[in-house]
Structures are given as structure tokens and as C-alpha cells.
Amino acid sequence: MNDNLHAMRHTSAHVLAAAVERLYPGVKFGVGPVVENGFYYDILFPEPISDDDLKTIEKEMKKIISEKHEMVREEISLDKAVSFFKEHGQDFKVELLKDLKEKGTTKIQTDETQDIDISKPDVATLYHTGDFVDLCRGPHIENVKDVGAFKLWKIAGAYWRGNEKNPQMQRVYGLAFETQKELDEYLAMLEEAKKRDHRKLGTELELFTIIDEVGPGLPLFYPKGAILRRLIENFIMEQQEKRGYVPIWIPHITKGKLYEISGHLQKYDAMYPPMDLPDEAQYYLKPMNCPHFMMLYKSTAHSYRDMPMRWTCTTSCYRYEKSGELSGLTRVRSLTQDDCHVFLKSDQIEQEINLMLDMIDETYRAFGFKDFWVRVSTSDPNQKEKYIGDPKIWEESEAALARLVEGRGWKKEVGVGEAAFYGPKLDFMVKDVIGRQWQLSTIQLDMNLPERFELEYADSDGKAKRPVVIHRAILGSTERFMGILIEHYGGAFPMWLAPVQIRIATVSEDFVSFAQKLKTELSDAGVRVELDDSDMKVGKKIRNAAMMKIPWTIVIGEKETQGGAFDVNVFGQEEHITIGQDQLVGEISKASKQK
Amino acid sequence: MNDNLHAMRHTSAHVLAAAVERLYPGVKFGVGPVVENGFYYDILFPEPISDDDLKTIEKEMKKIISEKHEMVREEISLDKAVSFFKEHGQDFKVELLKDLKEKGTTKIQTDETQDIDISKPDVATLYHTGDFVDLCRGPHIENVKDVGAFKLWKIAGAYWRGNEKNPQMQRVYGLAFETQKELDEYLAMLEEAKKRDHRKLGTELELFTIIDEVGPGLPLFYPKGAILRRLIENFIMEQQEKRGYVPIWIPHITKGKLYEISGHLQKYDAMYPPMDLPDEAQYYLKPMNCPHFMMLYKSTAHSYRDMPMRWTCTTSCYRYEKSGELSGLTRVRSLTQDDCHVFLKSDQIEQEINLMLDMIDETYRAFGFKDFWVRVSTSDPNQKEKYIGDPKIWEESEAALARLVEGRGWKKEVGVGEAAFYGPKLDFMVKDVIGRQWQLSTIQLDMNLPERFELEYADSDGKAKRPVVIHRAILGSTERFMGILIEHYGGAFPMWLAPVQIRIATVSEDFVSFAQKLKTELSDAGVRVELDDSDMKVGKKIRNAAMMKIPWTIVIGEKETQGGAFDVNVFGQEEHITIGQDQLVGEISKASKQK
Q1: For all residues of chain B together, what is the average pLDDT?
Q2: What pLDDT shows up at residue B27?
Q3: What are all long-range contacts of A446-449, with beta carbons under 8 Å and residues at least 24 apart?
Q4: Contact B253/A311, CB-based, under 8 Å?
Q5: CATH number for the domain whose boundaries are A204-250+289-489
Q6: What's residue A111's pLDDT?
Q7: A116: which DSSP letter?
Q8: Residues of A in contact with B306 (CB under 8 A)
Q9: Is the pLDDT of residue B120 over 80?
Q10: What is the pLDDT of residues B330-362, one digit of tens each?
Q11: What number of H helices and E strands is found in chain A?
């Protein structure tokens, strides 16, 4: 967001607090930062408030805005500030100021915002909004009258400083935009997103579930969800194999030794704790696949003739995400990556990345993602000492990345200095049909792991050389991608992806044997078909099929058993289409090709 | 093995010890039990012996046999026995006798034999073989002259009582059979098995490896092995899906809570230790899939109309097998089961099992297993109280199992009383081409888990009924089955299973572009093809392809680039076959259909 919008949102948070102070004497304030699309404030009310109270608070906020207060900045000594907030019963602010004095920082961790530094280290910065005074680093807009369009949105529980041993406060969320139009659009999108929520559709469409006794973040997939998984994974597999990628297979656990070599044990903090086998070793669930790939490469000899070696494995990794951060399929603890590692000579980087871009292009088209852009993370030319590997490889590959993305006419942003110390990177940001943005594919060069694992190949001159590695995932993870897809399609999958492509509904008992025969024929032809031969009314059967968002439904009655053409109810369409009996398989297969 | 053979083998172990005592004064003896195909004795030699010494020991054994000693049994008090063995410096025997006195048992755990009870609890039983005296429960044959044919086979290290804190002894293995012919046949089979050893072939054919830093029992698969895995798993998937099985998907870890409900946490001892998350729960790697299947079933409502519900998931389980028991792919710690659970009404058991037998029949044929028999484990009619569930279901399903197996003309053995308390079972024992027997498929009825998990379906009368569950695996695990298959085929896979079906070898640089084009054509047609365009001599290239046991190899030279027919080198065959250029894909596809 731009600086002005950031300041507007930040000022809105102060207006919220000012309104709350007027309405609820004795209230205590935590912190109130800017977040995506708005702001929040953590507040300890004398009595917890409910959603109904948000209207009242909003009204008071509007009143304050109409009073056109300037946002007045003041700097006072830390001690004076402590006295001021103590006097006003603001214990949390006092705590922050004491931290500032003792540790020189107020950085606090909450579950949403990693670091909030609430003031400068040496002096307390205050902002006045009429009578309301807050400890705040700023900046703000000049006058509250310019905060733009906002709306209080929801309340959630939040522990002070994200620690459940501290008092539980209420987090009041506000949406805030520069104009009412933008706010309205965002609210409409939220409304649409709610209908498309993959967690809701996941249950309704019998795709997946999360079960207490198994654990949060560990979805289980019903048959329809398992088929969707497979369709997605098979699509990727086909894309890969026609480009010369070959599968390998690795176990899900390993001795800690492997992660000592890779460095993950020292640095990666989302690993599950070890399984301790005192007589043998500590075993870990793998949080990523790279070290296994490296070891497998290292276990045999390789020649320049084998390069590039494109290895892939669709396999699960495990990351212990905080339970508060888990969400349906889009944030899980068990994630199945479409992971590839390519081992190559440094002069093959450009052609190899181009091949990856081909695949990304084809994949996004297939799933209907038309709007995307690329973030190119490069090294910082002023801090060359930060980066390992041959500077020539850096230079050439960064140039190649930019050139390749541009050559395709794709939007890009360059993040100078955002590359990891071991190589430049491409990240793909994709917009779904309702305009939300998701990060999907990643292409990451790596000059570190080949070094750490001492990987080699014999070059044409017979000498041992170190290969470059490119990490690459197109979908990220099957689970997250499925979550995004469910919302993108609102659960109404196109024919090629629909777990059930066609449902047959019988008008009465008399037509069941015909319908069963038809079902077997379709099934044998590879069509994903369901039969509803229950004794419900046929109208109800059609409505049920529509509830499940099945692309096609056909009714079997007198006409059909006499050889008459099928009237196909197409999901989301008013008009039937008519298909001759012997054309049905062909038409489904034709519809499946339309990606 | 029959009682006489068992006694012969046991007596051979005593003869071995007697010979060793004559040759190595000061030697100390551990235990010497009977094992499959022979016997062993754990011995602490004054100086470790080597394979070369086995000949000398064998010679002495033959001398003892020619002396025709009776095996004389004697019973003396435990105290007297302690004095006797102490006097003769046999510390391990003394330890066993003390255990016998204090604990009433000498049951000891070694890595190969779970329980050895060395004597009766109240009195020491000794056996005399000439001057040699051993503590032993018996029985033995009457005279050493009748021990049959034997051969000392190998030496391995073994800790006393299987505990690495105890002294390390040497385990001397002997093979023993009733006749020299049987021994010779067994030795020939061993020789053949050695050539076919899947661990050796696994490396030579680039199928899999086991890496120290990852851990024992956790194989990683190279591309060729990963393709073989997939071919096997896809075959099973196709077999299942045409019979109405549908996939589900489950995570590999779960809260301990799930295994409390299933009872595994209390009873199953091969589980990996937990991953302890103090703020949340203990998480476990799944050692089997049943509890996840049960929970997924339970998470939605089911009707009699849905039955039978055939759910399948090819997924990995983790079992912490002792490192001494691990072996290549046939005994691993990470195993991928072709696991199915069928939920059904009790009147559907027979038809459902019949469907499973169809699949077993078709699968064994496809993989060339022609010789197999079935073990039927039933309840013990004299201990009816041991078994849970409806006795009528027991009776009917046991009768159905026997009837179905007989109806197909399959050999069977009935193990009365060998059923688990929760249901009868079928186990399939399969012989490979060199006559070794493997246990593969299992079909297990279960009336326990549906009870424990309180599973239900709505019957046609609207009442809630409990389903029966059938557990079923055809291959057991992908890894173990692959291990067996590699040995069964000696690494020379038939066309449909070969990771590489055809290799193209160029005569010289001039023909590389033609060969590359051909490779692309074949690959696009779905053929698994490799190209050897190195600068080796073509004869060497053909020999290399044969080393990799690739079914077909074709050479590309002048004649072929002019459109001449391909001369195909067929693995294991003297004569070439000739195939016109435009028939190649068709012929490979035809050869792939011959299972």
C-alpha cells in the first residue's frame, strides 16, 4: 500500500481508540497497527463487547472525524510518558515504555504482525487526537477528516503480546480504503469470498474434513477430494514428464544428521520436534525435500552428459505452523509439494528456466488464472559480500531472469537486494476470479546446497565441477492449490477437474436397470459418473445434483429407455443441451478438453 | 518343519558345540537354537574365528558323528548344574541357570529368536554328547549318527542376549536337512538367490539406495526405481478402480488420541516414539491406516444404499523395526501399503471377498506368480468366548471363506483357532521362480474397530446398524513387493514393468541426430526409452544395455538411417528380432501386454 493509505489506516486506528475511550471509561489499550486492507486495535474493555457494539463505535468514530481534529505529534521524555500513561490507567502502554527504556525496543510479537516498534528508542512520541493521546511512532495524516472510507469489521480474541499467559483482550478489526468505492468493492469481494470459502465448500461438496482426534492442519480427503487431488497432481506430472522431468521417491523421515549437513536443524524453526530413539538417533519429519534430493544425487557419479537432471517428487512435508495460523487447506501442517530440483551446469540456467516458464504458462492457462505478475528477487549490488557463488553466475542469471520474463510480456517487479544469499529467485503472484492475490510458483537458484553437500559432476574435460541447483514448485502445495482452486471456481469445477462429471437421475424404479447399465458404460469409458436411483422425486434429484455443482445431470425416464436423446442439465445454465445416446461419452470427453 | 527334522537340527547344534569345544579350549557357549533351514550357536571364542575355520570345525563335527554318540539326557538340581558349568568356565550357562532359579524362566530375547526357554523351570536338563555336556530342554534324536546332511554356512556377530551392552559373540550358522539331496537343492537355491539379491541388483540397476545420513530401513528410489514403484502402484489402482474401489487421502501423522481410541497406543509396539508438543499434544507417525479410515467414515452419515463402500489409499506407514531385522526393501521402516478398507453389511461379506479373490487371481497372474496357497485362520470352536461380534457372522463368513477358496481350486490350509479375536482371515503364501515362499496378500474381517469407533449406517428400516469392516492388501507393501519382484525376475523385468523398455545405441556421431529424433518419437508415444550416444564402441554399448537387463536394444547405423528395419537385441535371447521402423511402437506395446 502507498504511504498515504498507510497513514490513513493508521490514523483510523487512533480514531477507533478515541471513540472507544469516550464510550467505555476504564478501557485499556494495547497496540493498534495497520494490516492488509485496514487496521486493528487490541483493547481490554471493562466488559467484553459484541459485534452489535461495533455500530455504536463506528458512529462515535464518524463524530470524531466530523470534529476535524488535527493529529498533533509531541515528543516527551520516556519517564514523563510513563507517568502520563500510569495516571491514565494505561498499563499496557506503561509496560511498552518500560521495555523501551530497558531494552531500547518495544518490538512485540503478535500472531498477525511480527514486529511492532511503538516509538523511537530514546524518546516517547505521542499523538494527540482531540483529548485522546496515544503512544505512537507515526506517521499519520494531518487531520482525521481525511481518513477516507472505513468500516469496523469483526472482533477476535487476542492475548496481550500474543502470549496466552497474558490477559486476553479483544481485537477490533477495521477495513479502510481511500474511497468509498474501493471499500464497497472490497466488501462485495468479501461477501463473494464467504460464499466461496473452501472450508465451507469442502464440507458441502464432500471434498475434505479436519478431525479433532487427528489434529488441526491435517486434512483428510473424502473420495471426491482425493480424486481432485489426483487430477491436479496428474496434470502436473504430465506437464513435467513431457519436459523431461523424472520422478524419484524419498521417505518422509530422516535422521537429524541430514539436517545438520543442510543447516536446517540450526536455522529452520517450523520443524516438528524429533522422535527420540536413544539407542540410535533422533529422527525428524521432513519439512522440505531438498536435502533428500541432494543426498540421492550424491550417492552416484554424474557426468556433464546427464545434465540437466530434472528430478521431481510429489511428496508430503510437515511444518509445525501455529494453530492460530492454520486455515482449511490454504495453511496446513502436512503439505504435498510438487517439488522439483534440477541439477545443471551454469551455462544451462537460461534454457532451463525458460522451460519452467513454459510450464507455468501452460499450467496457469489450464486452471484459468489469466492475471499474474512476477517478482524478481535479485542481489544488492552494494552488498556483494553477502552472496555466495560465482559473481558471473549471479550476473548472468539475474539478467536472464529479467530478460525471460520481459520476453513473454509478463508484468514484473524487481526486488533489488531481496534474493537469498545463495541465489536469485522468481515468485509468481496470481489473481483469482474475485481479484484476490495468491503467491503460487517459485523458481529459486541455489549455489549453497551443492556446496554444503559437495555435489559434483565430471565435466567434458574430465574435471570435477560443482552443479547449480534450481528449486522449483509450480503449485506450491497440492493442498493449498486445491483450497485456492475451490474458491477460484466457487466449487463449480470445469468438466476436466470435476470429481463427478455427470450424475444420472432415475425418474422411477422402472428405469434403474437402464441407468445402471449406462453408469457402467460411462465408467468403463473413464467418465466419473454417479447414479441417483433413490426414490426421491426427480426434481429433487436434479436440485441435489446442482447443490453438489456437478457439471452435467441427465434424467432417465421412458423417453431415454426408448433410445431418445439425453437432455443434459448443465450446472449454472438455464437451457438444457441435447445429446444423442451414442454421443454422450464423446461430448463429455470434448468438454473435458476445454480448459 | 516336522518334529524329527527339528530334533535333527537341534542335535546338529550340539555336535557343532562339541566340535568347537574340542578345537578351541576355553571357549564359552551361549545358546544354540533351531532356525529355518538349520541351526546356529552363539559362541565366544578365545580369539574370533573366520570363515576359513568353518571347514576345520565341519571336519571335527563329521568325526564326532562317525563316533556314533548317543544323546543322553540327564536331570540334576539347578544348584548342581550351576556348580558344574561354573567349574567348566561356562559363565553364560551359569547366568541362564541363575535366571531359571530366580525368575522361573530363561526366556531370552535375541534378534532372531524371540523366546528361548533353555530348560524346565524346576530342574536342569542336560544332554551328553560323548564328553560334551550342554544345558538343553531337548528333544534330540537318539544318536548323532542320524543328524542327516548339514553344512556350516556363515558367521555373524551377535551380542549375548541381543543386548549391545553385553559381550559380542560369534554366531555360527549351519544348514541342516534330512538328506544330502535336499541340502544340495537348498544350496543351489541360495546360490541363485545370491545372484538375484535385490539389494545387489537394486544398486546395479539404479533402482534404490539406502543412505546412512537418512537412516536404515528408509530406502530412497532413483528414477528407475520410482518408475517401477509407479507401474506397480498404477497396476493395483487400475485393478481396484474397475472393481469400484475409490481413493481417499490421509495424513501420515496424528494426535495420540486416535490411537488411544483404536487401542494401538496400548498394544502396538513398533510405533515410533511421539513428537512431543507440550502446548498441544503428542503426535505420532502412523504405523497403520485403519484408524484414519475409521474416523473418515465416521465423519459423515452413511446409508445401506452406499454399501459396500470400498475405500483405498496407497500411503506410507512407519514401523520402528529393529535395525538387525532390516533388509533392503523386504524389511523396511517406511512401507507403502496398498491398503483398502471395505465397509459393508454382514450379508455382503461373501460377494465382497469373492471380488477380492478375483483381484488376487488377476494380480498374481500379471506378475507371474503361478504357485500359491491360502491359509484360512478361523476361530477355535472350543473357545467361543474369546471372540467378539455376532457368532452367526463368524459361522457364515468362515464357511464362505473356505467355500470361496475351494471353489477356485486353490490349495488351502485351515488354521483352527488362529483367527484374531475380531474376525477370521485369509493369508496368501506365494512361491517365486526359485521356490522361495513369501506371504503376500491378506484379507481380514474386523468386527472390533467398527465397535471401538462406533461406526454406523442407516439400514433400510431406518435403524442405525454397525457395519463390518474388511481390511485388505494385495501386495502388502510396495517396497517389499518390489524387493520380491526384483528377485523373482532376477532384475530382468518383462516389457510392461521394465523401467527402461528400449535402449537406442548409436554406431557413431553421424547417427546421433537420427537417434535423438527416434528417441523423441518413442517417448512421445509413451515408450520408456534411453539413448546411448556416447563415443563408446557399439559392442560395448550393447553389453552395457545387457548389464542393465534392458528388454530391447537397437543399434542405429547407416542401414537404419536409410530406413532399414531395426535389429532388436532381446535381453536373454541369442537371436535378434527384426522390426520395420514403423512397427516399433506397436511391437513394444504388444510386448507390454504379455504379462
Answers
A1: 93
A2: 96
A3: A446/A290, A446/A422, A446/A470, A446/A471, A447/A388, A447/A389, A447/A390, A447/A393, A447/A422, A447/A423, A448/A388, A448/A389, A448/A421, A448/A422, A448/A423, A449/A262, A449/A290, A449/A291, A449/A294, A449/A422
A4: no
A5: 3.30.930.10
A6: 47
A7: B
A8: none
A9: no
A10: 999 999 999 999 999 999 999 999 999 999 999
A11: 18, 28
pLDDT of residue B302: 97
B305 lies within 8 A of chain A by CB: yes
Contact at CB, B213 and A261, closer than 8 angstroms: yes
Please determine, for residue A330, whether its predicted confidence score (pLDDT) is greater than 50. Answer: yes
Q: What is the mean pLDDT of residues B367-377?
A: 94
Residues in A touching B276 (Cβ below 8 Å): 273
Q: In sequence order, which ranges of A372-431 are alpha helices (DSSP H)?
A: 391-407
Q: Are A309 and B206 in contact (CB under 8 A)?
A: no
In chain A, residues 216-245 whose CB comes closer than 8 Å to chain B? 218-223, 225-227, 229-230, 242
- The amino acid present at A452, given as its one-letter code, is R
* Fold of the A3-195 domain: Threonyl-tRNA Synthetase; Chain A, domain 2 (3.30.980)
Output the pTM of the full model. Answer: 0.85
Mean pLDDT of A583-589: 95
When pLDDT is cut at 50, 70 and 90, the band that residue B561 belongs to is: very high
Question: What is the per-residue pLDDT for A592?
Answer: 92
Predicted confidence (pLDDT) per residue in B260-272, tens digit: 999 888 888 899 9
Q: Which of A136, A290, A313, A340 is catalytic?
A: A290
Report the complex ipTM: 0.85
**B549 DSSP assignment:** T
Domain map (residue ranges) of chain A: 3-195, 204-250+289-489, 252-288, 502-592
Give yes or no: B337 in active site. Answer: yes
Q: Omega before B139 cis (within 30°)?
A: yes
Mean pLDDT of all residues in B48-67: 96
Minimum Cα–Cα distance from B244: chain A residue: A523
Q: What is the number of residues in chain B?
A: 595
Decide: B492 and B549 in contact? Cβ < 8 Å. Answer: yes
Task: Give the pLDDT of residue A154.
Answer: 93
Question: Residue B255: what pLDDT?
Answer: 95
User: Chain A partners of B292 at a C-beta cutoff of 8 Å?
Assistant: 214, 220
From the CA of B535, how many Å to the nearest CA of chain A?
11
Cβ–Cβ below 8 Å for B248 and A281? no
Number of Cα atoms under 13 Å in the Cβ half of residue A516: 8
Cell 516527551 sits at which residue? A76
Give pLDDT tens digits for A205-228: 999 999 999 999 999 999 999 999
Mutate to test the interface with B, among A227, A257, A258, A283 (most CBs of B within 10 A): A283
Q: What is the CATH number of domain B502-592?
A: 3.40.50.800
Which of A203, A208, A209, A220 to substitute to test the interface with B, most B CBs within 10 Å?
Answer: A220
Residue tagged active-site, from A140, A199, A319, A528: A319
Residue with cell 474386523: B446
Place of cell 497372474: B365
CA atoms in the 13 A half-sphere facing the CB of A136:
25
